[in-house]
Specification:
71 residues, mainly beta, five-stranded antiparallel sheet
């Protein structure tokens, strides 16, 4: 799966809400065997992220499916 990264960064209207390569806590697990954390790989749309979940793989997550706790 590929992530879209714009080459023209002069448009500031699409700000990322979460830092890339950040671990977040999942509120909804895709299955009972996967971890409850996911690594955000890149933003897929305004409200969705491509994430990697240990013991599951890549998944597109809506921001309502996880929470970010800054350290």
């Amino acid at each position: 799966q590929w992530c879209f990264v714009p080459l023209d960064r002069s448009h500031d209207g699409n700000r990322q809400l979460y830092p890339l390569n950040t671990w977040v806590r999942l509120l909804e697990l895709p299955n009972s065997l996967c971890d409850d954390e996911a690594l955000l790989l890149c933003q897929h749309s305004d409200s969705k992220w491509v994430a990697w979940i240990p013991n599951y793989g890549e998944m597109i997550l809506h921001h309502s499916q996880f929470y970010f706790q800054p350290q």
